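In response to a reviewer's request, we include the raw inputs and outputs for one of the modeled complexes. The two entities were modeled together in a single run.
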Amino acid sequence: MKKFKHILILSALSLAVTDCKWLDVDPELGLDDQTVFGTYANFRSYFQWLYADNSGSNKESILYAFPMYADFLTDYSFSWYNTTDMSDAGKMGVTQQYFKQGVITQDFLRAVSFDTSNSDKPLAKAMFSAIRRCNITIQNIDMCTDATEQQRKDLLGQAYALRGFCHFSLCRFFGGMPYLDHPLGPEESWDLPRLSTYETYRKAAYDLKKGYELLKEAGYMRRNSPLALNSSTLNEINGAAAVALYARAMLYAASDYSNRNGIKDWEEAASAAALAISEAEEAGFTLTAAADYSRNFLTQETTNENLWTYSVQKNDTDINFSSLMAYPQSGSDSGSSGVCPTQNFVDRYETIYGESLLTAEDRMAAAAAGHYNEQDPYTGRDPRMDLTIVYDGQINPYTKEGVINICFDPYATPKPRWIPNSFGNNIVSFGIDWGTRDNDIYAYSNTGYYCKKYWNGNFGLGQNTQHYHTDPIIRLAELYLNYAEAVNEAYGPNGSVAGSPYTALQAVNLVRDRIGMPDVLAIYTGGKETFRDRIRNERCVELAFEGHHYYHDIRRWKIADQTMGQVLYGMLIEKTQANVTYPNGKKYTRTALPNNRQCQWKDYMYFLPFPDKEAYTMTNFENWTWK
Amino acid sequence: MSPMALIRRKSTGCSMKTGKSLIFALVTAMFLAAVQASGQTGSLVVKGTVVDASSVPVPGVVIFVKDGSSGSGTMTDGNGEFLIEAQTGNVLVFSCMGYKAIEMQVTSNLQTPLRVVMEEEQLLIEETVVVGYGVQKRESVVGAITNIKNDDLIKAGTSSLNNSLAGKVAGLTVFSESGAPGENNATLLVRGLSSWNGSAPLVMVDGIEREMSSISPNDVQSISVLKDASATAVYGAKGANGVILVTTKTGSKGAPRFSVKVEQGINTPLFIPSHVDAVTVASMVNIAMKNTQSFSSVFSDEVISKYATQSDPLRYPDVSWYDILLKDFALSTDANLSMTGGTDKLAYYLGVSYYHEDSILREITKGTNFTSDRITYRLNLDWNITSSTHLSFKVGGVTDVSKKLKSVSNSSAVFSTIYQAPTISYPAYYPEWAMQQYPDANYPGLVEFRFGGNQGHKYSNPYSMLGNPDYRQSVGNRLMTDIVFKQDLDFITKGLSVSAKFGLTSTYTRISQDVRAYAAQYNINWDLYDQGSDNYWVPVNKSDQFVFSQSPYAVTQDNSAYAVSYITYFEASASYSRKFADAHSVSALALYNQRQQTTDAGFPKRNQSFVTRLTYDYKGRYLIEANLGITGSEQFSPKYRYGVFPSVAVGYVLSKEKFWKEAMPWWSRMKLRYSNGLVGSDKASSNWLYYSSWSRNGSYITEDAAANIEARWETAHKQDLGIEMGWLDDKLLLEVDLYDEKRKDMLMPPVVTPLVGVKYKDVNTGALKKHGFEVELKWNDRTTGGFGYFAGVMLGLSENRITNYGDSPYAPDYQKYVNTPLNSARTGSTLVDDRYFNSIDEIHGYPLYTSEWTNVVPGVYKFLDYTADGSLSQSDLHVLRGSTYAPGIYSLNFGFDFKGWSFKTLCTGTIGKYINYRRSAIIPFYAGDYVVHKSHLDYWTPVNHNASVPALSLSDEMYAWAGGTSDWPGYDLALDGYTWKKSDYFSIKEVMLAYTFDGKMLKQKLGVKALSLGVTCNNLFTFTELMEQDPQRLTTADNYYPTMRMLKFSLSLSF
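The model returned the following structure tokens for the whole complex.
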């Protein structure tokens, strides 16, 4: 018995002693710095995350800076375009309405900048994460021992270019940023002061240029060929896109808001633009034919005009109901209206003869020339209007009616008074409302227009009719317009950069010629100032809804107070008897939008503030106040 | 409670504790036999039976002649009978351990057979208290420990151990938010809230960390609540929130004793909104319509009269949902059987309990209602292998079988729907006559009951929801097994022993039946009916996950889901306890333990600790104790893996001093004690805080969060000063504890500027301070007439304040968490004094609402411009006073017992509790549905400015304010006095009345020792200012199963 006792005691004690290492467990996570950065395969897996769709719960994707993606895509009742004079939000647009008048809520700010909950698209969060990823890549590239020289340069080139792209994107929305050229460590100050927008854009340009040089050395000026556009690595930035974005950043730095050295900045921007064009042309990029214009936005395959795109697969439900796709086509009863372009914007589409219709005098002159009729306003216009805007009477082969009706029947009983559109058995409302909330449950437009650029015209609900579309990050047409703008400022309409085949005017005409518009009329090319207005108008028309004008361009041009200060109009279209006065059987009345849908520009609106929650963590970084 | 309690030692056999006494008995018997054999003439043969007080025969009683020089003796046999020769004048002595010895003179007229009744000896033994890893004498305890006996728990009348603790321990908060069958486990807090990383105390069952819900109150011997650092330091990094030690019953020597208890409960729901009739609802709808200028949609007088007369109840119904869907009462059954007994070698305790509770919801389709069945069982064996070697084997478990509707995850969801179901929009269902009156053209001639749809309203028809024949039945099993080996090492030195313990807990839960079916639901389209169409019956479409069918319902089964976890525990210890020179008591403990918890396929969690304790007391007057816990957890970095938690406590028992006794004999007890020490908490948001985590995400690698390489324990520095006083032989007792606590190193997310671009894992930056006191006053007495009575009061107050928090450093002070109590309302805004906008002028004179509020009209809430910057925005949010966890709790109890009657009652209450109203509870017509509750009837009108709810509106927008979050705007903010209401309550928690029959008669007639009949009532009444809401809750989310008033009748037998 005693022996038994002793055995028990001894075994108990020995257990106690041997288990001193009980807690030394290895979680065997399998991934440490060496594993992650040691091999090219893992390194790439690490870096590529910033291109991944949505990039997980931490939201670390650069996608959020792409124009369609940044357009608050899952929230179909929101669009950045609706926060400007370019368009109205129609139904459910309260947030944008307040924004337009200089009021934002913290919830909204967090959702667009830092919140990572499911539906949010936190632009700033994504950019700072991506910058860290680029910086860690640059810092650790030497740990990668099995990469070829080409692979190293490719990774490094992308990292530099995207670091520039991310800072550029932040600066566009939030103003000057500290330039983060290495990953911030735990011992460092995490509270850095802002740089000016000029410095930020120039530093971003420098990185983009460095990225372009490395990518060129690696042989990746493009990742497909003009003959075989598909490629598995299309989502990665290439040399042509890097140099094009470099030119864009230089242009932003030279623009009125940021310009520091007057004409010199413009000259440098012009040279950068010339370099970008020659590199793009050399790589085989070219403007598509007029008939293929919409392929730049509406196909699965990229085009030869797109330097860099993000292609959205048709089953990606996130983007299918973006407000940019004329939301009522989804057939949702409670629907939002999506983007409803204002009459002011539609007036930017010239007559097919090249006459401006922007002012009442312009329109009277065009009417006198027999090129424009206020009671038949959509005939004889720039072809891009039909490709960009949904307007009343637009031909649509998918509807029973054959056309889209955005028309009001004052005599209809009972309600609704809007004229229905039928996609097969699905009745959708492109209703018109004018603030009376007459048709409470359906989407409606306050302007008489919707956005067509990313919509293929068919009914959108259900897998079969969802369509492919493309998020145009940068395309060749923009390069010509960037060049024209910089050259016009530096050297005038007929000037050019040494070695470049184009004058500013020629560059603009290239873009017009492709779509079937005549060259810019001589009356507009007399001087820098008059031509500047035409270049700006051309940008609005050509690059509509591609993340440029208004939200960014009016700010860098410092003309937001003018554009946002104008009275916004829509086109009230009523059904009537067809006669000589009303050849379409419709009565078109330019009507000012209700007061609560107008803009009220305030100078603090140039850039978005960071939400208080983030701003309160810093004191050196000065936040804007919207008040 | 007196320090020395009278403990009745019960045994029916004459016990002999050690081998020695066994030998002694044998020798005695042999000797007596020899004497008997020798024979003696002229003597008297005395025959008889020895029985105990309850007439049970006592075997093994030694009987001998006291002064007989020759000496003779015998022992009773198994039937308690004996035979002895004696001479007249001799004195017979009956003796047996555990009984008082009896002397009896042999007289000539002695009547045989004798019946000797032996009284159980009431031994004076010292009362002990279970402490961490041991047992201490009550009087030498220097920590703040409250001990509760089994009786108090069982008599609470609840079948949940957590709930039965309510009001019994000063400083222990107990509240329950749901009364659902099988879900009514109360939340426990020791000395209030402690940390944002979790405030739940550590629960140990028989020395091993386990859930309290797995134990039946019937199997519990005692519960110790450990509150200060001295008592909890041995638990190191797990003890900071207090420790609750549950000790299960063990067997005691003697013939098997059984006790059986059967209880039948009748439960009725509390805080159920009462029905508001259709006419009132419809007229309020009309007011709301007019308020929003929707004049065309108001109900006409004709329609309202139809609601009044109920002439067309399908089209103009007046549905009292709670009446239709709730039973008058639910039944519960509780049965318990226990058996205990043993010999010198082996003692056993066996307890089996069965509990069944019905749902208060009506069973609409047979076999689908919510139910809960639970069986708990426990077998504790204590085996003395030798006089110095002991082995215990304990096994206990619980099996749960519960049934829930599948379409609603839990019964609470049904209540949410009932709360929001419209009164006047659709009938609960279509009875057969509905199809007679309104035939369905698609089913000519068919007349049957139909489930109704919701006629396009927001929430489901609760009747159809509850009646839908889908359900899920799950079975859960938990098994707990302990083996304890103890060896006394007196042969090395007296008082030394070693022991080892091994414990295993396994849990297995499985869905045993998963029935998916969907019964057809119909709406009647009254527009179509009015237009003369035949197709006015409209079936409701449901998604594909249900099989849309008519009876008999298609059934599919899915038994695949299960969850499994197991915990292993090992402990080895050496302890020493000895008293020298009758004055110096010394004890020492050294202990090692380790624990591993594995849940499903997760990485196991491991803990390890080394514990030592030294105690010394001098004549029970001067007490000193030192504890040291060194605990480790695998989840912290190797450098900080072990936490060291020392504590020291001293005590001085003044009342044991001679001078005290002489000067104040009536002041029977005076003890001072003070403790000071560190305790920790290892609760953390995740494992591997010290690892920078890279993880694979499909084909990508991501950096999840940067490491906190110094991740370590949360530490609490606690001090406790206790005064224990007793007067009049401890009839009146007063115990006061004052405490102070400072926590630091509390894990929380660090402040990272957005520029960094990565999250950091939690860092140890938080700090909190807490202080408070507990008072307990008791009177306990028994008159000479046998009337026993007691009364007591307990009060606990606990206040805390965050002293360091990861606030953004440049945020305005009024928005920082620091300097606020835990769980205060931080998102709140305060209303100005006169509550509502009473006129248009007032609105114009008010700062701008810079938000999405578009409907500021008279009769809506007015918010305070806290920053006085001329606009209302989120910068006006600030912290409100108060917390949803009551800082103060108190309880009162009193009772008596007299001649078999016993009565007691317990009341509990709170001080400074707040409740957060959810908007569904405070606004009428939630989500536009036509439902109002009694609490909504006092609404704002131009002549009723002091209303409790604002002007009526059917649109949530009118109540919304974007100062909240986008998900929960407006009314989900805490608004002082409106959605943030004081909710102190006083509740009559327990009332118990019982009568016990015992005595010979009972034994002879029924064969039982005692029979007791009783009635208890839980939650008899609650006094509160809230209307239709349970003040115990933290929020008024309507999706709680109501608390139940439980009336129980019990019958218990022991034999």
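As requested, we also summarize the result in words. Residues 326 and 453 of chain A are 9 Å apart (CA to CA). Chain A touches chain B through 66 residues (CB under 8 Å).
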